[in-house]
Design brief:
Layout (H helix, E strand, L loop, with lengths): L4 E5 L2 E8 L5 E4 L5 E6 L4 H10 L1 H17 L10 E4 L2 E9 L4 E5 L2 E6 L4 H25 L2 H6 L6 E4 L7 E3 L4 E4 L8 H16 L5 H10 L3 H9 L1
Parallel strand pairs: 2-4, 6-8, 9-11
Antiparallel strand pairs: 1-2, 3-4, 5-6, 7-8, 10-11
């Protein structure tokens, strides 16, 4: 895929990348940014015209993301605050005690800190979530090793990587990066993102072959995707 360029469209500025795909792919990011992937030989004017035909859909997508952002609760890091793990809600119980760390017991995250300061609580909880994310991701990706081997695909290897706009990405050699925040989502959503990235080891682009494969390995992916986005 080529380097990106910024272009003007009827839906406003957009980031355009070129690839070997045969059709234009239009995607709206959670921050409202418009991303386009187009064939190498299609003029920018034609791309902008096609974006104009999808303007109503783009407006709806941006409105939906804006509603999600308005309705999303600001995370707090003090006793009584609620956080999710694997799709379930747990409350924080914060106290000053040794050793510092986080334990999940029953319906509570028990957080032992030096000071009880919210910044310290946040750092401890995020470190716990990151460790659990790697544990969950590695276990779930291991289930795909045989599937990949039979299709002569590289053995999938996971790393946890903070991404502002994506839940995951697939790279060369079987490398799969997953956002640690994904561990807060229900298990079906985690499995969907992993299946999505595994399919990219076979088909890097979002083309028809990719979606046929995703349909075959994860038939319920559309519901899982909608649940994750909400």
């Amino acid at each position: 895929m080529s380097k990106h360029e910024n272009i003007s469209t009827p839906a406003g500025p957009a980031v355009l990348r070129r690839s070997d795909r045969k059709t234009l792919a239009i995607s709206v990011q959670p921050d409202g940014e418009l991303e386009l992937i187009a064939p190498h030989d299609v003029p920018v004017g034609d791309i902008a015209a096609k974006v104009g035909k999808r303007l109503r859909w783009i407006v709806r997508q941006r409105a939906a993301f804006a509603d999600m952002k308005r309705n999303r609760l600001t995370l707090r890091y003090e006793s009584g605050a609620t956080h999710t793990y694997l799709g379930r809600q747990y409350r924080l119980k914060v106290r000053c005690a040794k050793p510092v760390g986080v334990r999940l017991r029953g319906a509570y995250f028990h957080v032992c800190t030096n000071s009880g300061n919210p910044d310290e609580v946040q750092k401890l909880l995020e470190a716990w979530m990151r460790d659990k994310a790697l544990e969950q991701f590695e276990r779930r990706i291991a289930r795909w090793e045989s599937w990949c081997r039979h299709r002569r695909l590289p053995r999938p290897r996971v790393r946890v990587f903070n991404m502002r706009k994506r839940w995951g990405s697939a790279g060369a050699g079987g490398r799969i990066a997953l956002n640690p925040d994904l561990v807060r989502a229900p298990s079906i959503c985690i499995d969907y993102v992993i299946a999505h990235e595994i399919c990219h080891l076979k088909y890097p682009l979002h083309n028809r072959a990719f979606f046929r494969l995703l349909d075959s390995v994860f038939p319920n992916w559309r519901n899982a995707k909608a649940r994750l986005e909400s």
